[in-house]
MIA40 protein (Sylvia atricapilla), 136 residues
Amino acid sequence: LFVSSMVGKDRIIFATKEDHETPSSAELVADDPDDPYEEQGLILPNGDINWNCPCLGGMASGPCGEQFKSAFSCFHYSTEEIKGSDCVDQFRAMQECMQKYPDLYPQEDENDEKSSKDLEAASMEASAAKEEKASS
């Protein structure tokens, strides 16, 4: 017996022992050029983010999918001089969510963690410099 479930699109498939013993009769279907989720890369022709792109490695789904989408969208559409410097809160929320699921989102080793913290610190410094510049 096999049961498959997808969030938002529940689909239950029952397979008998006999189903598993007979060879598959599945046929490959030619790619549909009108399929909006066909592997078009990360950015669709209209400029939207292709959340189904395999290049995202499934990050857009799962328990932190909404936080990932929020952070990535913010970065993608950011018009700040230092791109994404206005997205610190979204990335922090995503990181906090991922820390709750270490089996799904393994943490970086110490060297990677240091560079991640350096990046966050640089982003925060850029935000502070921007605020300082705006107030002068």
